[in-house]
Amino acid sequence: MTQPADWFHTWFDSPYYHVLYRNRDAQEAQRFLDRLLEHLRPKPTCTFMDLACGKGRHAVYLNQQGYEVTGLDLSEHNIAYARQFENEKLRFYVHDMREVFRPEAFDFVFNLFTSFGYFKADAENVVALRATTAALKTGGKLVIDFMNTPRVIGRLVAQETKQVEGITFHITRKVEAGFILKTIRFEDQGQPYEFVERVRALHYEEFLEYFQMARLRLADVFGDYQLNPFDPQKSERMIFILKK
């Protein structure tokens, strides 16, 4: 099966994506957001963007804390689902992060759970980061939560089988041409499917270069969802707090 140019267009819009990843820990995500808010100390009037918001669980939680939140995602199905939660302070839109959404409209932008580095061309990551920066008010902050790439590569599970809702997913992983590739093959009702996730294997130093090109200042970097200090060898995540 031929992959389209942008894999995320089809995979994130597929119902099978949500089947495979249905057991993601919502409570862990909420605790992470609680810690972020405690660290960032936003005023009640602050506006938030949840960039690559998926079905909107983080945007909904932020809104429940009293904030005005806009959730953006490329997947029409995700946004259609998320819109059931809309209110006067919570809105969702289909949007490509490479384009500016609203210039200087947000106090905070959150890009969480490795929702960056999907594009084939390295330059497009910079384009996306600049577009995101443009949406921030002066003095606003961007939070990027990405895997700690060397640690992930060092622990890569080459082959794995998962059974979810009666579907057997055959998963293979490898590093190729600067990307971590995850191939997902399965059958449903006699129909074979194949999807490939491609995430650029971005290292800490590459992010620093991106931030410089987007004129962002690195304020903090944490290594996990408990906001412990970043350790290049041991940390699970790279959580960057950036200021415009």
Describe it for me?
The chain has a seven-stranded mixed sheet, sandwiched between helices. By secondary structure, it is of the alpha/beta class. It is built from eight helices and eleven strands. It folds into two domains: 7-149 and 202-243, Vaccinia Virus protein VP39 (Rossmann fold); 152-197.
Features:
244 residues; alpha/beta; Rossmann fold; 7-stranded mixed beta sheet; 4-stranded antiparallel beta sheet; 8 helices; 11 strands
Topology, please?
Layout: H1 7-11, H2 15-20, H3 26-40, E1 47-51, H4 57-64, E2 68-73, H5 76-82, E3 90-94, E4 106-111, H6 122-135, E5 136-147, H7 149-154, E6 159-164, E7 167-176, E8 179-188, E9 191-200, H8 204-213, E10 217-222, E11 237-243
Parallel strand pairs: 1-2, 1-4, 2-3, 4-5
Antiparallel strand pairs: 5-11, 6-7, 7-8, 8-9, 10-11
Q: Quick gist of this model?
A:
Helix content is 29%, strand content 34%.
CA gyration radius, whole angstroms:
18 Å
CATH architecture of the largest domain: 3-Layer(aba) Sandwich
The major sheet is characterized as: 7 strands, mixed
Number of helices: 8
Order of helices and strands: HHHEHEHEEHEHEEEEHEE
First CA to last CA: what distance?
A: 43 Å
Shape: globular
Fraction of residues in H or I helices: 25-40%
How much strand? Answer: 25-35%
CATH topology of the largest domain: Rossmann fold
Spatial ordering of strands, largest sheet: 3-2-1-4-5-11-10
Low-confidence stretches: none
When the domains are counted, the total is 2
Total count of strands:
11
**CATH superfamily grouping of the largest domain:** Vaccinia Virus protein VP39
